[in-house]
Every structure is written in structure tokens, then in C-alpha cells.
Amino acid sequence: INKQAFVSGENILVSGIIHNESDVKIKECELQLIRCVKYCARGSTRSDKVVAFKCTQPAVAKEAQGNWNSVLVSVPCLPPSGLDGCNIITTSYKLLIRIILPESILILQL
After folding, report:
1. DSSP conformation letters of the chain
2. pTM of the full structure
3. What is the C-alpha to C-alpha distance for residues 102 and 24, in angstroms, rounded to an integer?
4. What angle do CA 76, 108, 33 make, to 5 degrees?
5. 3-state SS track over 73-93
6. Taking the CA atoms of the chain, what radius of gyration do you get in angstroms?
7. Phi and psi torsions of 52, nearest 5°
8. Which pLDDT tens digit goes with each residue over 22-61?
9. CB under 8 Å to 86, separation ≥6 — which residues?
């Protein structure tokens, strides 16, 4: 990832290599930007997660590798995180990689 803080309209550049050392083909890889919101009121909390952006990368054959060279994750217009003085709503963002196999899904958080 090219930096740590982003604003709406910017692109997150993600580069990396996926080494598939198994004997099973990876069906596809998804790069997701997840918005996590936590609401606090009267001693109870509720959390929501929403996929704000998703990008699908091609399959990776068994015993092969897939290269991600500056894959663009466009940051959409989203509510800000870290609002000073606000203790009832907390917003954070995560970048996830979902590795989709024929029988299961592996999720990696960046």
C-alpha cells in the first residue's frame, strides 16, 4: 500500500504477489474496502460492516503465482473516521483480501 491515510477521490495503490503453493486453483481474489461503524447509546452497542469498494482479480493456477501491480482501489465518498468529541459513533476502515477457493474462502486483513 502506497501510504496510510486517504481522502475521498484518492486511489489506494495495492501491489503484491499471491503464491499459490497448493494443488488447488484459486478461483479469484477480491480486494475489499470495508467500512466498520460502531454505535454506542445507553450502555449498548451495535456494529455494522459495509463493503464500500470491491475489485476482483483473476484466478491463480495451482502451484503458480498471481501478481498485483498497483491495483487501484478508488476511495469513494465516505463518512470521516476519528471525529473529535463524538463518542456515540466510531467509524473505521479495513482493506481485506478474500482468496476464493473451490470449497472455502480465506480472508486476509491488510
Report:
1. ---S---TT-EEEEEEEEEE-SSS-B-EEEEEEEEEEEEEETTEEEEEEEEEEEEEE--B-TTEEEEEEEEEEE--S---S--TT--SEEEEEEEEEEEE-SS-EEEEE-
2. 0.78
3. 8
4. 5
5. EECCCCCCCCCCCCCCEEEEE
6. 17
7. -90, -25
8. 899 999 999 999 989 999 988 899 999 999 999 998 899 9
9. none
